[in-house]
């Protein structure tokens, strides 16, 4: 954090904590129909609020300006552990905590459906947006890979952008693949880098996020006043700092290449 430029601030997602806790408590989440599990998720948000306040006080500025929350728990196999009503009540309680200038955004993950196996299996974007419109406090953040996994189509992210409209606050470029032989897994939210169209040694040929997909997404976003991010993972078991930096650097370079080509 000390190396963060003064004109930057960070977005903090609670998703890793949610996924870790759900390993032992699958009912855990802000949308949980289990009241005890929902209350524990609220307690996690309170802990996050205190942590953010400490960090911002330590750096004497808003170094963490945004928090991403999700509509867990996972719904699958006909077992619906979450509901829109439970999520609505949680978001009402969270809003009342008092956040000052901190922005709270709902990070949409692939939603439960009966058509395909799910990865996250959280609430549908339509239900999340209904709450956003009702409460007028939260924003929406989309992830290219998660929207594609949910819809099994590269058109999915475009439709989600259209649905979110003025409520969209951020967009994350992260890939996925339908290649069952890929080390990243078929239709799994494992953060595969984009397809290699810039002569990179780090990007992945089996990624569904290629030049045309990035182009259509940027065109749909139409230079919206939102924040943009990437989420990519090095699956190589032999971790090297140079490789990790290279994957992130070349992902940004690929997106910039597309942006310049349509500007």
Outline of this structure?
The model has no long low-confidence stretch (mean pLDDT 95). With 263 residues, the chain is of the alpha/beta class.
Helix content: 25-40%
Task: Give average pLDDT, whole number.
Answer: 95
What multimeric state do the chains show? Answer: single chain
The secondary structure category is alpha/beta
Query: How much of the residues is beta strand, in percent?
Result: 5-15%
Number of helices: 8
The topology string of helices and strands comes to EHHEHEHEHHEHEH
Rough outline: globular
Rg (C-alpha, Å): 18 Å
Low-confidence stretches: none
Q: In order across it, which strands form the biggest sheet?
A: 1-2-3-4-5-6
Q: What is the end-to-end distance?
A: 33 Å
Q: Please count the beta strands (DSSP E, at least 2 residues each).
A: 6
Question: How is the biggest beta sheet arranged?
Answer: 6 strands, parallel
Task: Spell out the blueprint of helices and strands.
Blueprint: E1 10-13, H1 15-22, H2 35-58, E2 64-69, H3 84-95, E3 103-107, H4 125-135, E4 139-143, H5 144-151, H6 156-164, E5 168-173, H7 211-221, E6 227-230, H8 241-262
Parallel strand pairs: 1-2, 2-3, 3-4, 4-5, 5-6
Description:
There is one protein chain. With 263 residues, the chain is α/β, with parallel strands linked by helices. Helix content is 40%, strand content 11%. The protein has eight helices and six strands, in the order βααβαβαβααβαβα. The protein has helices at residues 15-22, 35-58, 84-95, 125-135, 144-151, 156-164, 211-221, 241-262; strands at residues 10-13, 64-69, 103-107, 139-143, 168-173, 227-230. It has a six-stranded parallel beta sheet. Helix 6 packs parallel to helix 7. The protein is globular. The relative contact order is 0.10. The mean pLDDT is 95.
């Amino acid at each position: 954090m000390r190396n963060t430029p003064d004109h930057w601030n960070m977005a903090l997602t609670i998703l890793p904590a949610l996924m870790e806790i759900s390993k032992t408590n699958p009912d855990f989440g802000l949308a949980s129909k289990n009241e005890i599990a929902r209350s524990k998720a609220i307690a996690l948000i309170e802990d996050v609020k205190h942590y953010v306040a400490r960090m911002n006080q330590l750096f004497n500025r808003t170094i963490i300006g945004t928090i991403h929350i999700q509509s867990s728990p996972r719904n699958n196999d006909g077992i619906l552990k979450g509901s829109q009503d439970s999520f609505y009540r949680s978001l009402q309680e969270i809003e009342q905590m008092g956040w000052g200038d901190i922005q709270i955004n709902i990070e949409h993950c692939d939603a439960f459906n009966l058509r395909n196996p799910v990865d996250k299996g959280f609430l549908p974007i339509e239900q999340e947006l209904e709450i956003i419109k009702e409460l007028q406090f939260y924003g929406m953040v989309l992830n290219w890979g998660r929207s594609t996994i949910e819809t099994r189509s590269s058109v999915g992210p475009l439709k989600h952008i259209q649905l979110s409209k003025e409520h969209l606050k951020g967009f994350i470029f992260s890939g996925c693949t339908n290649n069952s032989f890929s080390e990243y897994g078929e239709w799994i939210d494992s953060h595969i880098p984009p397809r290699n169209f810039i002569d990179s040694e780090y990007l992945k040929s089996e990624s569904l996020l290629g030049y045309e997909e990035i182009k259509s997404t940027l065109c749909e976003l139409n230079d919206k006043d939102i924040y943009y991010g990437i989420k990519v993972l090095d699956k190589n078991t032999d971790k090297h700092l140079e490789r990790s930096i290279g994957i992130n650097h070349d992902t940004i370079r690929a997106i910039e290449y597309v942006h310049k080509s349509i500007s």
